[in-house]
Amino acid sequence: MRIVQVNAFYYPYRGGIEHRIHQFSKRLSKRNEVIILTSRLPGTSAEEKMDGYRVVRLDSRYVDIYNPPYVRTPGLMDELDRLDPDVVDFHFRWSPSYAEATRRYDGKKVFTFHNTFGEGVGLMHPFSVLNDTLWRRNIGHCSRVVCVSDFVRTDLINHRFDPARLVTVPNGIDAPPDVAVPEEDFILFVGRLVATKGLSYLVQAMKRVDSKLIICGEGPERSHLARLIERYGLGDKVELAGHVIQETRDKLLSCCKVFVMPSLFESYGIAVAEAMSLGRPVVASNVGGLPEVVRDAGLYSRPKDSDDIADQINKLLEDPAERHRLGAHARELALTYSWDKRAQEMEALYCEVAKAG
Question: Quick check: pTM over 0.85?
Answer without folding.
Answer: no
